[in-house]
Amino acid sequence: MITITFLPKVEKGIKENWQVILKEAAEATLSTKKWDNEPAVTIVLGDDNYLKELNHQYMGVDQPTDVLSFSIEEINPENGSFYLGDLAISLDRAEAQAKSGGHALEDELRLLVVHGILHLLGYDHANPEEKARMWSAQAEIMQALGSNLLIPIE
């Protein structure tokens, strides 16, 4: 189950199709792995201030970022559902990155969801080998979503 929340500060800029875009990107990424139970993920779309607060609180970095992943990996004892984790995405960063990259905001949002969920699945880019593996997975998923946007996230 994919839960998507738009924080009030960004709600007025949200387009109708973004729920679908974010959900499709999440599902495409999650489908790269076999699951006993469908995993649950929450995606929160906020602004730079929200991501700056989270980045400072959890990463010790006092600046905004584009996407943060929070791995939970818990099984609900009542129904056996698996909660993989949360993503927080900055709409401000996504807009700036799309503009500077010359591509659609929707593609940037897809990429941030794919990137964030890959982190939840254990991918990382701390060294060249890990980065190559993660960028390859991103490229495959983005192509499956019909996007040619393969810009790496630094």
What are the defining features of this structure?
47% helix, four-stranded mixed beta sheet, 154 residues, 4 strands, single chain, Collagenase (Catalytic Domain), alpha/beta, globular
- Fraction of residues in helix: 40-55%
Q: Please indicate the percent range of residues in DSSP E strands (runs of 2 or more).
A: 15-25%
CATH superfamily: Metalloproteases ("zincins"), catalytic domain
What quaternary form is this? single chain
Structural class: alpha/beta
Span between termini = 28 Å
Number of strands: 4
Order of helices and strands: EHHEHEEHHH
Q: How many helical stretches?
A: 6
Question: How would you describe the overall organization of this protein?
Answer:
By secondary structure, this protein is of the alpha/beta class. It has a single domain, classed as Metalloproteases ("zincins"), catalytic domain (Collagenase (Catalytic Domain)), CATH 3.40.390.30. Helix content is 47%, strand content 20%. The chain has 6 helices and 4 strands; from the N terminus they run βααβαββααα. Strands 1-2-4-3 form a 4-stranded mixed beta sheet, with helices on both faces. β3 and β4 (82-90) form a beta hairpin. The longest helix is centred in the last third of the chain and has 17 residues, at 128-144. It is globular, with a radius of gyration of 15 Å.
Helix-strand blueprint:
Layout (H helix, E strand, L loop, with lengths): L1 E5 L1 H4 L6 H13 L8 E8 L1 H12 L7 E9 L6 E9 H11 L3 H16 L7 H17 L10
Parallel strand pairs: 1-2, 2-4
Antiparallel strand pairs: 3-4
Helix pairs in contact: 2-5, 4-5, 5-6
